[in-house]
Amino acid sequence: MLATVVSASRDIAAPAARIFELIADPAQQPRWDGNENLAEAHAGQRVHAVGDMFTMALTLGVVRENHVVEFEEGRRIAWFPAEPGQQPPGHLWRWELEPLDEAHTRVTHTYDWSQLTDLKRIPRARWTTADRLADSLARLAALAEGS
């Protein structure tokens, strides 16, 4: 049976607030994307609450609207991507941050496609493995630890 929920965790030597800014500001996301799928997001879309939506241009040239469904400042953020003006097809990206102390944070990145309804997206969903999530975590760590 193929896992439809994959995740990876990493301890990062940076405060949770610094790491969260890199995640909650969509303009920063292409800098750490281990899937090499994100091209750019306009500045000024920083997420602040459930119900927020941000747009992202993908490397394939398409745009996604990302609907924020979980949010706790500095701790958790999750969104469902969708084609502009459409309902999300059911795959979720989640980030959870657990401060270990003032200068260290355990970060867990999860991709959940257990509710995916668009069969065309299944090959790409299968391609998104825990190793690719770990790549994003490694890039995120390099940015956060170098700040």
From TrEMBL:
Lineage, broadest ranks: Bacteria, Bacillati, Actinomycetota, Actinomycetes, Mycobacteriales
Name the UniProt record assigns to this protein: SRPBCC family protein
Family annotation (InterPro entries): Polyketide_cyclase/dehydratase (IPR019587), START-like_dom_sf (IPR023393)
Organism, as annotated: [Mycobacterium] crassicus
